[in-house]
Specification:
- Two copies of one chain form a homodimer.
- The first copy, chain A, is an alpha/beta fold.
- Chain A is 34% helix and 23% strand.
- The first copy, chain A, folds into two domains: 4-91, Ribosomal protein L30/S12 (60s Ribosomal Protein L30, Chain: A); 104-241, SPOUT methyltransferase, trefoil knot domain (Alpha/beta knot, 3-Layer(aba) Sandwich), CATH 3.40.1280.10.
- Chain A has helices at 4-12, 16-22, 30-39, 51-57, 71-77, 114-126, 144-150, 164-169, 207-210, 230-241, and strands at 24-28, 44-49, 65-68, 86-91, 104-108, 131-135, 158-162, 175-184, 194-198, 215-218.
- At the A-B interface, helix 6 and helix 10 of A face helix 6 and helix 10 of B.
Chain lengths: 242, 242
């Protein structure tokens, strides 16, 4: 049974300002909730789920608080078009420490679509990229659509939001900027370390960041589309760089 | 000025059944509308746009019928969260003839997310893939979200919906199935022809299709994500195959 206060609180977490105030976010669906419980112990504050799901999962989930809800209640708190058994309220993760030496790091300039942001985090996780640094104006990693699109990778990849221009100026490793013109990625020897910079969906990388790049890299076009989706481009570059 | 009949007709094209009945769909935004007008002459039935846009574009658009609308009217007919100057009603394209010899063809089994479907068509266009064959239960290419995600590539790439099992049985070229286990795509010599089969977002390729594949191919995983987004996977495979 869901109280009115709980209902209002969970719904409020759909908004960035309230997520920031409460330092909490929501995650939905068995796969994502389980991954967060397992990978970031202590972060899940409470779980709202159908009684059947609770009965099947309570045993392994430690002493997390479970609240049984009806399908109608889950419907009201869910951000999904098809609510999926369970919704967790989760503490925002600690701000990660990023260390770029001997690693490939992804840097995102103003990625705005939540689906793209989540898919990029998921793709980074597939290729073993442990850290993603985002400009402050990028889509919020705790937006429910981002969390959903990460498919659980949000629990494993470190994501930092910062003043990207300032941050990148302080880095010692080579900076590769994904661009419509540049060196064919297939001609670049897999680097042991470096920052791969990906730009906004329509505007690309802002000039102030682009001029800090050591090398512009590109995915060779053979057809007529003007550009590639930002998440697809990230995946293609990572498949060549890792 | 928009009539009530026009308003109702345009809104109805948001539904697949009515698109099928009317053999028409809607496309929005200057870029996509221009590309369809240029690449598929005769397909655009009528254009509804802000007066300013009409004044700037009427000269090059031939004898297409333009109806000026106010921002409030555009808002009511648009499927976008931020309506973008122009909406066109377009005749569905002729069913394409697909010829697989000496070409790379993409085949999609039950891709359900409209954003993925559109992004895959856009990615195919980037890599010069001219044709995509979809199982009948895949997301409709004329769904407004698909049209939007193609960013205009819908006007260039041939897309066929068919009984994929039956269609693939009749093909003579090699069939590569994207799978979580298989030969590393980097070890495959770029083929001059072949069909690349991509599966559903959560279930992958159905067994009846998978058994028709000549080779299973995979994108090597270095991290912990369970899977890749279908559009990202398509992009990575095409970047290695073309």
């Amino acid at each position: 049974m869901l109280s009115k206060t709980q209902l209002k609180y969970i719904q409020s977490l759909g908004h960035k300002k309230l997520r920031d105030d409460e330092k909490a976010f929501i995650a939905e669906g068995p796969k994502i909730v389980k991954e967060i419980i397992n990978e970031v112990p202590g972060s899940v504050i409470s779980v709202f789920a159908l009684e059947e799901w609770i009965n099947e999962n309570r045993s392994w989930a430690g002493n997390i608080k479970f609240t049984p809800v009806t399908e109608a209640e889950l419907d009201r708190i869910s951000q999904l078009s098809a609510p999926n058994n369970v919704l967790a309220v989760v503490k925002k993760f600690n701000e990660p420490v990023i260390e770029t030496t001997n690693k490939i790091t992804l840097a995102l300039d103003t990625i705005q679509d939540p689906g793209n942001m989540g898919t990029i985090i998921r793709t980074a996780d597939w290729f073993g990229i442990e850290q993603v640094v985002c400009s402050d104006d990028s889509a919020d990693m705790y937006n429910p659509k981002v969390v959903q699109a990460t498919m659980g990778s949000i629990a494993r990849v470190k994501v930092l939001y910062t003043d990207l221009e300032q941050w990148i100026s302080g880095q010692q490793v080579k900076i590769y900027a994904a661009s419509l013109e540049g060196k064919d990625i297939r001609e670049i020897k897999k680097p042991a370390e470096g920052i791969i910079l990906i730009g906004n969906e329509s505007k690309g990388i802002r000039p102030q960041l682009l001029q800090k790049a050591d090398e512009r890299i590109t995915i060779m076009k053979k057809g007529k589309a003007e550009s590639l989706n930002a998440a697809v481009a990230s995946g293609i570059i990572l498949s060549h760089f890792t």
